[in-house]
Write a structure and sequence with these properties.
Blueprint: H1 2-8, H2 14-23, H3 30-39, H4 43-71
Amino acid sequence: MIIRIASVSRDWGYDRIAGALANLEHEIPDQTVGNVLRRHGRQNIAIQAMTDLAQHVSLGVRVICALRTRFSAARCSFRASSA
């Protein structure tokens, strides 16, 4: 069931998959979800989702900084993390 959920919902991380299973009355820790996905060679699904989210947030922060700098005298310091 973990593999099926991860395959269908590619943007979900371990916590969200564990939460979906909990809603189905299957209490499984997120670490177990990660272990199962790794064992089946699927850990990249959740890792890619986290990377995509980090890139999306990084872009949003840069846009906000650009707008803030353009429309006010305030400076915006943002340093992108290397992922």
